[in-house]
Amino acid sequence: MTRTEAEALIQSILEGTMPCLRPRHFWESCAEEGFTAQDIHPILRSHEMRGAPEWRAQNHADRVRLVGKCCEGRSTVLVIDLRTAGPCALVSIMVDKASPRKRRAT
């Protein structure tokens, strides 16, 4: 899957034409990291894809990592398994540890 194809699928998820599963392990990840369901759409709407889609044979899906801002403005990584046939699935959500942090004034 190319980046362009992945972006088209993400747009389909936003439009509601592509189903996207939210399994229990995803909600556990949300709770552990302090995110809610309201954080998903802002990231899907305005994100940057980190790396190229990665084929995951065991899931029959291409995994993408989207970096965006959650409702609180934190830099966040949303991991999604994209499928052209069948539903996509949210995998995990976490604080983006690779983004530069502001230092406190001393």
Describe the structure.
There is one protein chain. It is built from 3 helices and 5 strands. The protein is of the alpha+beta class and 106 residues long. It has a 5-stranded mixed beta sheet with strand order 1-5-4-3-2. The longest helix has 13 residues, at 3-15. It starts with a helix and ends in an 11-residue tail after the last strand. The relative contact order is 0.23.
Overall pLDDT, averaged? Answer: 90
| Number of distinct beta strands | 5
Indicate the low-confidence ranges by residue numbers.
Answer: none
- Describe the biggest sheet? 5 strands, mixed
The gist of it:
This protein has 106 residues and is of the alpha+beta class.
Characteristic terms for this protein:
106 residues, alpha+beta, five-stranded mixed sheet, 3 helices
Topology of helices and strands:
Layout: H1 3-15, E1 20-21, H2 24-33, H3 40-45, E2 47-56, E3 61-69, E4 75-82, E5 88-95
Parallel strand pairs: 1-5
Antiparallel strand pairs: 2-3, 3-4, 4-5
